[in-house]
Amino acid sequence: MKILVCITHVPDTTSKIAFVENNTQFDKSGVQFIIGPYDDYALARAVELKEQHGGSITVVNVGEVETEPIIRKALAIGADDAVRINAFPEDAFFVANQIAQVAKEGAYDLILMGRESIDFNGGQVHSMVGEMLGVPSVSPVMKLDIEGETAKIAREIEGGKEYMELALPFVAGCQEPIAEWKIPNMRGIMSARSKPLEVLEPTDNEVKTEVEVFELPNAKGAVKMFDADHVGELVDLLKNEAKVL
Q1: What angle do CA 183, 144, 157 make, to 5 degrees?
Q2: Among 20, 126, 152, 236, which one is most buried in terms of CB atoms within 10 A?
Q3: Which ranges of 25-91 does DSSP label H, i.e. alpha helix?
Q4: Which of 20-24, 106-110, 172-176 has the lowest mean pLDDT?
Q5: Cβ-contact 5, 71 below 8 angstroms
Q6: What's the CA gap between 79 and 190, in Å, rounded?
Q7: Is residue 236 classed as helix, strand or coil in its secondary structure?
Q8: How far apart are CA 208 and CA 122, in angstroms?
């Protein structure tokens, strides 16, 4: 089984976010970057499927040279080789187009990625890749098992879960609890240094969107504490100031 896992290069969830160039560019200064958490679930499940059924795992990232440390981490976790598309991920369409080209050339049985990246949270790439390849796309996938050429899937829907069977190949946007994150061991870290990492130039530069400005959310208001004996004052503020009553 050939599995393609798409990973993103995103700020750590504890990073302080700021913008520069009149709020048109993200300020990367002092920011720690990680593999997208949902992509980590996809990679972990790919490793488990490889252990069960054999085959190989390729990771692909659309990013500039600064993304290579997280690609090496993915190789240390269990991927066999990697592809980096040497371009800044301008928007979802651009990223999906690059991934689709890699997927077409590699003839993969399964394409896994996170349900969304945690920087833009668009949740669009998996469906775009599926459309470009002419194969089904399913998200968010919480359970994935492979039996022969058939996948058994559980995905989250509003108010419950949906269970389905799907023929390979297809695209899946993954989330917990599809697998548990895997931490690379020393052997994996050492072997990752010699695993192939191919750098490709983008197939085209078509971008569908343009960022005009970024805005931080409004700061949270201060918390007001009330003594249990002053319920009337609390009710008054909820009614007249917060206007939730």
Answers
A1: 110
A2: 126
A3: 37-53, 68-77
A4: 20-24
A5: no
A6: 13
A7: helix
A8: 14
